[in-house]
Here is the input.
Amino acid sequence: MSQFSLLGKRRFAPFFWTQALGAFNDNAFRNAMVMLVAFQMALPDAQVSLYTNLAPALFILPYFLFSATAGQLAEKFEKTRIIRFVKLFEIAAMAIAAVGFLTHHVSLLLVVLFLMGVHSTVFGPIKYSILPQALERGELVGGNALVETGTQLAMLVGMILGNSLMLIAGYGTVAASLATIVIAMTGYVASRAIPVAPATAPDLTFNWNPLSETWRVLKITHDDRAVWNAVLGISWFWFFGTVMIAQLPNYTRHVLHGDGTVNTLALTLFSLGTGAGSLLCERLSNRRVEIGLVPMGAFGLTVFAADLFFARPSIDAGAALDALAFLSAPGAWRVALDLTMIGAFAGFYVVPLFAFVQSRAPRDKLSRVIAGNNIVNALLICIASGFGIGLTMMGLDTPTIFLITAVVNIAVAVYIFTLVPEFMMRFITWVLVNTLYRVRVDGLKNVPDEGAALVVCNHVSFMDPLILMASVRRPMRFVMYHKIFNIPVLKFVFRTAKAIPIAGRNEDAALMEEAFDRIDEALAAGEVVCIFPEGGLTRDGGIAPFRPGVDRILARRPVPVVPLALRGMWGSIFSRRDSALRRARLPRRFWSRIELVGGEALPVGTANAAVLEARVGELRGDKA
Here is the structure.
């Protein structure tokens, strides 16, 4: 089922349109205000500079002041009611904005800008914490992709509309006032259709002190190391985007020698690229939370941002081209491609990170984690502004700033991926599996989303754990022969995935006993453990008898058991069909079709080695 089918479901569509209309209105108002202040009020340059520099600070200030409070609200109270109050607040803010537009009262418009910052601050924790309540686990990536795409396109169209309306001779302020009020009212109407989203922590004791609560929210966000580093990754995305977008006006004027339409074209390409990259995430990740896309996104951001340094279109310095004339200039399409691909890889980078935070953070703390994320985002945005201003004051031109940002991006990415090797582990797994195979999966929903479970599967090749790791949505602890565990390169993957090495009793009795203890500890902690009960790779393509180790595991810790079966792996270079000499050669097939099928979970107390061997055999059938 396509992610776009969510747009036809009441549990998602009203929320999608509510948040998209909010993003649209926010940008329409801000750009209409900039057009009025910078181009239509004939203010001195110093005053215009003061207002344009003050505006971002006023918008971002509520994130520091109220994010922690907003996170508490989203946890303690039913979310839909809060959304409706927020939309009513937006209508009131736009009514005040209309007065500011019509009277050219800049101070009043700056007050409205602060109010819209409050609006976004309160809505932010709800925006991402409501998705896990409304969507199934397999829909999280698609839902986040649609939200990210909708937000980008809404921001772009809102920006263009805000500029365009204010340019209507004699009626610009009236048109902008009416449009923003109507959009706010439409957003409220859409919010009325959002289904109830119950409070996730109704007994939460509310803390009205913003300073102490901010500290507590940041501590909650920091509790899970992987979540914290995902938050740092998301915040770095905002740093990177802030630096890049802030340089676009100077880049279009002084490097591309274009007018305002070229700046709009650059923003359009970036937004469309981000939308396309976000939507591709679901397909590339097979509808699972695939953080393996994050390193690929980081790499792409660096490559195409650095290429902007080298891409210098052949345009006369005295020209002021419009968008069509620019696209006709030699070298312009390279710049257009760079901007689009930066957006696309931004989508690959940020969508899995949001989905990861939503799936990993505790449900009763998710809104506060998102609030903590927003606080860190705001801090990085402020630092990004200072970073860009500092490099400009040093006399560096815009392409050089792009290059420096690209290099710093690699350094930050390496730092984050070193702290959380799981990102690189998932990337290596994703690349290997998707290069060699096209995996069709069926029945994997039988692996429970929560609670302990034992997964059993036939063992055909050395790649089997990687294929399961890349296909099953929930992280699993693999039990594997210690010599496979210690294969170079793959050892990093298996160790990061917390695989459990095991040996035969005659080979290393102590290691075997340690393995059974670690299996029991993992199941006791509510994790999923995957074993290959044959005890080794098949030598003839058939399923060897299941060894009694599975019975020992279940006798010690009775848990549900999910049978899986791999089809089509026999004959792979990683199977034992060929001699060692032939396995040493390059694979003779790439992107071959294989299948991974799952059966219904066997309830506690009903599974044993013989039953499971028969069930896995039925699932595999005659497709070795």
User: Anything to note?
Assistant: The chain has three domains: 1-193, 222-419, 431-620.
